[in-house]
Design brief:
The structure is a single chain. The chain is mainly alpha-helical. It has two domains: about 180 residues, no CATH class; about 200 residues, no CATH class. Helix content is about 70%, strand content about 0%. The chain is built from 17 helices and no strands. Helix 1 runs antiparallel to helix 2 and helix 3 runs parallel beside helix 5. The two termini are about 15 Å apart.
Length: about 475
């Protein structure tokens, strides 16, 4: 069930109509049932995977907290981690690793057969397995206590607004909200509606329209002129921002209307000056998870410089692999690992210099522009459907950059038309008003702005019902 579908609108209004007539426990039960309906809408069989993770991690959390012996605590944690990673590994990576192994063995002359399995990737499995695995790790670290109510814990795992594409919440933030009563205040209602409107604007107006430009270039063999590749890469940078930030904004808005606060998942990632700040503003819940449950346990920056660079690279390699079962994602992760390590090395050696002085604004602007283009190069790798296509596309930029065409001109005009509003809003958020979308304003101004967004959506929105990009992850 897609947020941008009529089915979801009907589904959510039905849930909302009942929800605020019930007490807290009944509300939780309704939310849990609605979450299973929401997820089972794609394929009811995959509910068994969520139930498996829920049961194993519920029991593991209780046993970790009750056990006094360190060995027993580690055994229950290992059961939780192994169960979640096994489910994720089989459904997402079995065919990928098998094909990679077969190809590797064939290069040394060892031909082996393949086991052909028709494995369907369950929607959202990367998100909810990380969330529930984070819970047992936090219980093991004694950062949170074990949840004793099974239905409350099941709702934590399956809460439908953020179930299939995040934000990836921590137990310390989300579980307490299910344990206490909730109210729909006027401010919460206004915030929720604004988040919904802005999310649909990002998805339907920005992302889905830009998707037509991106698909026209990235669905072929890469044999297109350089200007088209450049424009399509820029378009994809804002398509994936609009698509994923749009989903997160809708999820936050839906949750607010249910009395639940989800974490901010995106800020202004294309107005940063370095790779570290990019990951502090892009998919914040994932980057926080990778930092807290992977980078820091590996040693973080507590060891030697070489060990710190190793930890950065391993974290980003696994972060890239988390995004998809393809070597292009692994290379994308390695690329960002190199950017992070390079920026850290440059900072430690003082190579970046100071941005103070009379030309500080110019230096900062150039740093933002450089970081944006480095990010876009990564997006080209990310979006390419194969290494061969990626090589062709990069080659086109390098050798056919002057082959301007009417199609490239059309792509550029279309991209600017859908990108400029997002750039303006994020520029204002970054430099003038961080809370722009939730800023206090008169009711007439708020109503006028809301009506403007709705008019733009219906005038130029793409209502084809495109899936969200991150559903494949």
């Amino acid at each position: 069930m897609l947020f941008n579908s009529l089915e979801f609108v009907v589904f959510f209004f039905c849930v909302l109509a009942l929800y605020w007539r019930l007490g807290r426990r009944a509300q939780n039960l309704l939310l849990l049932a609605a979450s299973y309906v929401f997820y089972g809408w794609w394929d009811w069989r995959f509910l068994s995977l969520i139930l498996t993770s829920t049961f194993v991690d519920y029991v593991s959390g209780r046993r970790i907290a009750a056990s006094e012996r360190p060995g027993a605590r580690r055994a229950w944690l290992a059961l939780s981690v192994a169960t979640n990673l096994s489910l994720l590994g089989f459904f997402k990576y079995f065919n990928f690793f098998q094909e990679s192994l077969v190809s590797l063995l064939s290069t040394v002359g060892w031909e082996v057969g393949r086991t052909e399995l028709r494995i369907i990737l369950p929607v959202g499995i990367s998100f909810y397995t990380f969330q529930t695995m984070g819970y047992t790790i936090d219980v093991f670290r004694r950062k949170v206590g074990p949840e004793r109510n099974f239905l409350t814990f099941a709702l934590f795992v399956a809460f439908f607004p953020q179930l299939v594409a995040g934000p990836i919440e921590t137990a310390g933030r989300l579980l307490p909200q299910f344990r206490r009563g909730r109210q729909l205040t006027r401010d919460r209602l206004a915030d929720g509606i604004w988040c919904l409107l802005w999310g649909f604007f990002l998805k339907i107006y920005v992302a889905d329209n830009l998707g037509r430009v991106v698909d026209a270039v990235f669905t072929g063999d890469g044999n297109v002129p350089g200007p088209e590749v450049l424009v399509a890469t820029y378009a994809f940078a804002f398509q994936i921002l609009g698509d994923f930030a749009g989903y997160s904004s809708i999820a936050i808005g839906v949750a607010k209307l249910l009395g639940i606060d989800l974490m901010t998942n995106f800020l202004y990632p294309y107005f940063v000056t370095n790779p570290r700040d990019f990951w502090r503003n892009w998919h914040i819940s994932l980057s926080s998870w990778l930092r807290d449950y992977l980078y820091i346990p590996l040693g973080g920056n507590r060891g030697s410089r070489l060990a710190t660079y190793r930890n950065l690279m391993l974290t980003m390699l696994l972060g890239g692999l988390w995004h998809g079962a393809a070597w292009t994602f692994v290379v994308w992760g390695a690329y960002h690992g190199l950017l992070l390590a390079g920026h850290r090395a440059a900072s430690e050696h003082g190579w970046l210099g100071s941005r103070d002085g009379g030309n500080a604004l110019l230096k900062k602007g150039l740093a933002v522009l450089l970081m944006f283009h480095l990010t876009c190069l990564g997006w080209l790798i990310f979006r390419a459907e194969s290494f061969a296509q990626c090589v062709h596309l990069v080659g086109s930029v390098a050798t056919r950059l002057l082959e301007w065409s009417p199609r490239a001109e059309y792509f550029l005009i279309a991209t600017l038309f859908f990108v400029i509003p997002v750039v303006l809003v994020q520029w204002i958020q970054r430099y003038l008003s961080p809370n722009l979308l939730r800023a206090p304003m008169g009711e007439w101004r708020r109503a006028a702005l809301a009506c403007s967004l709705i008019v733009v959506l219906f005038a130029w929105g793409e209502f084809g019902g495109r899936e969200f990009v991150y559903f494949q992850f």
